[in-house]
Automatic annotation (TrEMBL):
It comes from the Bacteria. Belongs to the universal ribosomal protein uL13 family. The keyword Ribonucleoprotein applies. This is Large ribosomal subunit protein uL13. It holds the Pfam family Ribosomal_L13. This protein is one of the early assembly proteins of the 50S ribosomal subunit, although it is not seen to bind rRNA by itself. It is important during the early stages of 50S assembly. SUPFAM superfamilies: Ribosomal protein L13. GO terms for molecular function: mRNA binding; structural constituent of ribosome.
Length: 146
């Protein structure tokens, strides 16, 4: 028996575009499904060292849900790298000002911290409203089971 191990090459990748409506979806459960899709883990051709994932467009980012008391208690931190430069925002504050960042950061945290990270996260597009401007790519409606 002479079995060969399959290894996906970057020129053999077939990418699709998917659009997800984040309305009333739980943030963490939605982010894991999106991370798997943009990484390519849901495909039979998954290869860890190759970026074989699809593009995902998320719409209605401000309508995402969180469980428990995270709406008021969950905090997002940023630092200016100067002394005393720590800035803190709650989920509610960030959802009012920049809701796209909430989903982007949740998905980014679920990706591997390696050289593929930057190319994988570029396949995620997050929008606050219904209009995403990617009609030319003919995205497929995707309803992840969360």
């Amino acid at each position: 028996m002479n079995m060969k191990t399959f290894s996906l090459k970057k020129e053999d990748v077939n990418r699709q575009w998917y659009v997800v409506d984040a309305t009333d979806k739980v943030l963490g459960r939605l982010a894991t499904k999106i991370a798997d899709r943009i990484r390519g883990k849901d495909k039979a051709t998954y290869t860890p060292h190759t970026d074989g994932g699809d593009y995902v467009i998320v719409i209605n980012a401000s309508k995402v849900k969180v469980t428990g008391s995270k709406y008021e208690d969950k905090k997002y931190y940023s630092h200016s790298l100067y002394p005393g430069g720590l800035k803190t925002k709650t989920f509610r504050e960030l959802n009012e000002t920049n809701p796209e960042k909430i989903i982007f950061e949740a998905v980014k945290g679920m990706l591997p911290k390696n050289k593929l990270n930057k190319s994988i996260i570029k396949k995620l597009r997050v929008f606050d409203g219904d209009d995403h401007g990617h009609d030319a790519q003919q995205p497929i409606e995707w309803e992840p089971k969360v």
